Amino acid sequence: MARFKKLAMISSLSVIALAALLSTGCTKTEAKQPAPQALPVKVQTIDLAPVPRADEYVATVKSRRSASIQPQVDGTLTRILVKSGDHVRAGQVLMTIDPLKQQATVEQQRSTEAQKKAIFEYNKTEVERQRGLYEGGVTSKQNYDYAVQEFENSKADWDSAKAARITQERQLAYYNLTAPFNGVVGDIPTHIGDYVSPQTLATTVDENADLEAYIYIPTERASEIRMGLPVQIVTSSGDLIEKTRIDFVSPQVDNALQGVLVKAPIHAPRDKFRNSQLVKARVVWSTSPAPTVPVLAVTRIGGQPFVYVASSAGNGTVAKQRAVTLGDTIGNDYAVSDGLKAGDQVIVSGIQFLVDGAPVRPIS
Fold it and tell me: What is the pTM of this model?
């Protein structure tokens, strides 16, 4: 019995010693866990940059050297001398309307003019003859005056006939449709044999020069419209094509669109634009300094944009998550309307590895 008690005591002491040893080992293991390593990150100091306050509108490019070719007379189209896409010179004949009826009118007017001229020549001779007879005392003053009157009347008739003939000849020129300037022929919806009138669109001629952007600005912005406002012509993806300025403001509101028409000249190379092309026009109302942040520094959680700001904490630096309100993109940056101020150190690399409060080591 005594021996059994002695063995039990030894076992108890062994268990206590083992427990003490395990406890000591755990304490040493926990003490050896290293502190989290600071993640090296690149930072960028926030500066204020000029940020425009602008609105985008759909604008139409129009050429001041663009003409719709419409006849000035009625008739049947007998010749089409060009095709769509042809380059033509100023004065070149594009189409011909049947001129036979007008040519007959011109010939008739020429005959009338010749008749009037013959009467004039006769009366001119007669007035000279009557003058001689009157001065010789053979005829009366009344006969001489009558001859002078007939001469004056025939002269007026002849002048009138000449003017009518010139008018009809000029009218004959309208039967040839010509190019008003050098340019390119557009669509030709008419065909040989069609009956055309001054309301018929025969074709168009465009030089694709002296281009303007036609922009309709909503009436609620009318008070802010002024001459010289900057306008940026941009692509559908927002890339800048050209900077220009408003040089015309309509004094009236378009009744159908309820907008105010403004125009801005376009000086970009001709191959970038075509007449009647739709483009985006960004009207810049004002420019003011505001913080900007690189696009790559922004992350989104549930649709809310955030950035990480390097902030001092004790003896180190940590990444603090900060919600921001973004404006328009300016190149590779976002304009920030709320959440950042000048001088903040925004982390621009390794943000996918960061959490709020993670230690970081800023590098240049």
Answer: 0.59
